[in-house]
Amino acid sequence: MSFPVIKGAAYALIQASNMLLHQGTTQTSERRKNPTSEHLEKLSQHLRSFQEAVSYPPNQVYIGNMTPDDLKDIPRPWYQAPVSGASRVGKHGEIMPEDEFLGLMKIVDAFDLVVLEEEFQTGVKGKISAHPVLKNIKDLDKLSQNPGRLEEISRLVEERLAQPIYFNGKLVGCVKKAHEFDEALSDHVMFENLVGKASAVFALMLLFSRTELQPHEVEYIIECSEEACGDMNQRGGGNFAKAVGEICGCVNATGSDTRSFCAGPAHALVEAAALAQTGIYKNVVVLAGGASAKLGMNSKDHVKKGMPVLEDMLGAFAIHIGENDGISPVIRTDGIGRHKIGSGASPQAVMTAIVAEPLDKMGYKITDVDRYSPEMQNPEITVPAGAGDVPLANYKMIGALAVKRGELDKSDLMKAVAGFGMPGFAPTQGHIPSGVPFIGHACDMIREGKITRAMIVGKGSLFLGRLTNLFDGVSFIMEKNGGKEETSDFSKEEIRAMIAQAMKDFAKTLISNE
Amino acid sequence: MDLENQARIKELAEKYGKEDLVVVLGGAEAEASGLAAETVSTGDPTFAGPLSGVSLGLKAYHIFELKEEIDPEIYDEQISMMEMVLEVDEIINEVKTYRG
Amino acid sequence: MLQGKKVAILGDRDGIPGPAIEECVKSAGAEVVFSTTECFV
């Protein structure tokens, strides 16, 4: 079987402190209930600067300048261990400051909903025009058009016709509602959707800059965030994927959106793998932007514990899946793990379904996998909030499963965890940490011969949608490419066609010789 | 503890009374589990939700504490693996301090 | 402790989820009157 491959991955982070204050749901909920709350008062003293966000070790890992293993050697708290000489530009991506991102939001806005104040707009236009990855982006000239006046922006915000856009604590723009009373097109929803679109656009542009893939070569895009776009008659109608591809010049692509909470990216990658393996589409990109709603989600606990508010990052990624090239790591489509409707909700039922069952199918033991990438949330964010160290808990569950299956001695559990585990380094942006942040690193490590295979695991809390109590999970193995053996796997039809062509050619030479 | 859940627990406590209603927790670590136990007993210490300053006097247990009462086969199937994953003693010690 | 009691379950996505606790407390003779699973991520 010729498996599809992962040809490249790109990652983006955007520091969005002002959005955290004004659009993060923890803050908007607090403001609604208790506008004079102590939390809101204290919060702004706990924000960090852009340089602090850039030099934060987990962020450097996310964009590929450091490896997850490097984090093991840095004692926590990581926010007190800045990486010296850290750059916003990374091997796998980039960290963008909020002002440039606000400019990008206006560039990707197709319905004149984003209004930026004139001076601010001129300033960010200069920055984006000089940005190595974005300087040629479609519709850059929107930043020369229709600037807003501050009085008008203030009026729209005060009359609740628009979401405010702040930078450095100053009102610099707004996102207007797209319909008089349709809640699906409210300023709040449009703000979130434009954040999702703009951040996914940035990730896709980074993918084109970091890999050989050209925009016109993309045939299909699967967007897998947790947002919904549509109007009141089709609230989740879509299609983020094509909207993103349009800005990035993917003229030959179509696309669609896939949803399953945090498990969305893993589902989307399996779909992309199937499309590439069957040859339906040669080049498929799976991507997702970030969620402004989740900014500062656990900030109350961070403030209470005297920490910086670390959930100030929007995350995004774009991953290229293609036909087997004999080089890039393959996706083992013969062993996809899935949490079935009948699997059950207990942690061991979930882990059995998504980790043990697919390994059994491929004839591997749990300990045959060099690295697991479950939900890679940064523990420095989740532990103070009471959710524990999520990747570590997942590693222990995988180890405990191996113990229960008799593949591992209980006394070796923590040793196994240290071997196949890694510290979490991704921001708590729902779908963003879910398995995918390690894919870029895994490609490097497989290419460098450091590991042979890794399992990517996505898990999703479907019960949050209040339609089912079910859990969700999907996994797949990425593995060193077997090279020629894998690609020399001709089908009978291909061989027949080759023989027929050879006979035709031979016949032609006979005719021309006559 | 989630604000919506605080409201639901308050409602249930009013309906069934503190003698009949027991809260069972599945928290991943000690502090958060203790916080939930405290919230349903003496009130929300973070003063964020409907149980701020409301002392329901409910007893809360972490599911790990109730092992003896549960069908062993079911416990094994549903919970036992997590005994290897979470800090069981730490969680139990924290939760029981709020039962008075 | 559980026999004949009404039980409200506060499960945790990254600890023990609600439905797993439901199965357990039912086996101990309790009636589940509320079950939820919290998610911090």
In CATH, what is the class of chain A?
Alpha Beta
Shape field of chain A: globular
Number of domains of chain A: 1
Quaternary state of this entry equals heterotrimer
Radius of gyration of chain B: 14 Å
- How does the helix and strand content of chain A classify structurally? alpha/beta
Low-pLDDT segments, ≥5 res of chain A: none
Which two chains share the most extensive interface?
B-C, 33 and 29 residues
Rg calculated over all Cα atoms of chain A: 24 Å
Q: Can you tell me the residue ranges of chain B where pLDDT is under 50 for at least 5 consecutive residues?
A: none
Helical percentage of chain A: 25-40%
Residue fraction in strands of chain B:
5-15%
CATH topology of chain A: Peroxisomal Thiolase, Chain A, domain 1
Alpha-beta content class of chain B:
mainly alpha
How many structural domains of chain B?
1
Describe it.
The complex is a heterotrimer of chains A (514), B (100) and C (41). With 514 residues, chain A is of the alpha/beta class. In chain A, helix 16 packs across helix 17. By secondary structure, chain B is mostly helical. Chain B is built from five helices and two strands, in the order αβαβααα. A two-stranded parallel ribbon of chain B has the order 1-2. Chain C has one domain. Chain C is an alpha+beta fold and 41 residues long. In chain C, strand 1, helix 1 and strand 2 form a beta-alpha-beta unit. At the B-C interface, helix 1, strand 1, helix 2 and helix 3 of B face strand 1, helix 1 and strand 2 of C.
